Amino acid sequence: MYLKPFLLFGTVTIASVCSQANAKQSDYITVADQFKQHFHQQLKQSKVPGGAFVIVEGNEVLSLSTFGKRKKGGKLNVNQDTVFRLASVSKTFAGSLASMLVNERKLSWQQPIVKYLPEFTLANKANAEEITLAHVIGQSTGLMPNSYDNLINANVKMDKIINKFSELTPMCSPGVCYGYQNVAFSFIETAIEQQSGMAYEDLLQQKIFSPLDMNTATVGYDAFMARENRAEPHVKTKSGFRKVTVKPNYYKLPSAAGVNASINDISKWLIANLGENPGVISNSVIKDVTTPGVRTTKELRRRDWRAHLDNAHYGKGWRVYEFEGRPLIYHAGWVAGYVAEISYSPELNIGMAMLLNGESRVIAKLSSTFWKNAFEQANKNKS
After folding, report:
1. What is the pLDDT of residues 74-120, one digit of tens each?
2. Which of 4, 163, 211, 344 fits 351 for a cystine, CB–CB 3.0-4.6 Å?
3. Are the beta carbons of 139 and 180 closer than 8 angstroms?
């Protein structure tokens, strides 16, 4: 059964819930408290305009806290319901939604993408016909990384971008090498929409947002701009963070970068992915999307993470890390003016997410430090 988070003065803490229920206090309370202090210190030091984080354990929220303003120099604070752009964290929803349809036998991972998008082709037509839905969602199409993201940035129409793929020759056969995509990843929407008979955003609302009570979660530019309680984007310049306008470009790719949500909503998404709401996200879906696929060696060189990562793969809309010998499910997102991260440990049954309205590398430093401390605490619990 899903339990709604316990809210108190803008900060969520499991301690108050546990005291009322006379239950054992979490072993990770100290880690959560230390992270909260670290989060506020680092964002203040980095002069990030605003942000929010949440840490969950099982079906409870250990800690939820917000920082700063929705807009630099503004009066309105970020709160638990302030909506941010999730950028590529949107891919985690696409992976799960597609996996649901596979579980319902409405889709098959082995189906070629041209079955649903016949206008898609490559320089050699046979190469295009080899790319399956599993390759699309698993970032293993064999295409050059970030193919035609430059055209998304230039606001070129999607039909023209799809036609441009006919000029490409793959780097490798599908399923062999990793090549991170946004445009090609978004092809999964066509398959989802054709098999469900619904618009992508409507199906996401029906199957995930509504059942999980993600009341501020939406898809798309218009929905984001319609939210009064939204975080404005900021880019970093030599003179500090500068507010910019919300760019609609990547909203053309709803599955790859189109979801908007508050940190309160993200807590519910994390809890579901920990297996605490199997009526919405089944264990079979969780297993499917977190099964390691193609190896992602580039991730092993990430600053702030490389000291801890032993291995890295892409699943289906989620990254699968091996953090000092332990599995860690993860995804990050960046889009002009926003950064986001979400991660969870199936072993420890805890998860953490952060949303910032300023482009800052501090988010990677914070998340890697959190997991280092969490796994150290787990070792102490065993001893």
Report:
1. 999 999 999 999 999 999 999 999 999 999 999 999 999 999 999 99
2. 344
3. yes
d(CA 244, CA 94): 28
Rounded CA-CA distance 381/383 in Å is 6
Beta bridge pairs of residue 321: 312, 328
Burial of 306 (0-12, 13-18, 19+ CB in 10 A): exposed
3-state secondary structure 340-383: EEEEEECCCCEEEEEEECCCCCHHHHHHHHHHHHHHHHHHHHHC
Backbone phi and psi for residue 72, each to the nearest 5 degrees, phi listed first: -55, 130
The count of C-alpha atoms lying within 13 angstroms of the C-alpha of 25, restricted to the half-sphere facing its C-beta, is 10
Q: Which residues pair with 12 in a beta bridge?
A: 7, 64
pLDDT tens-digit readout, 239-291:
999 999 999 999 999 999 999 999 999 999 999 999 999 999 999 999 999 99
302 φψ region: left (φ > 0), alpha (ψ -120 to 50), beta (else) = beta
**Are the beta carbons of 248 and 225 closer than 8 angstroms?**
no
For residues 259 and 90, the answer to whether their CB atoms sit within 8 Å is yes
> The whole model's pTM is what?
0.93
Residues paired with residue 65 on neighbouring β-strands, in sequence order = 53
Pairwise CA distance, residues 94 & 316, whole Å: 9
Question: Look-up: residue for tokens 């929409």?
Answer: 193
SS3 251: helix
Nearest to 112 by CA among 136, 92, 95, 93: 136
d(CA 379, CA 374): 9
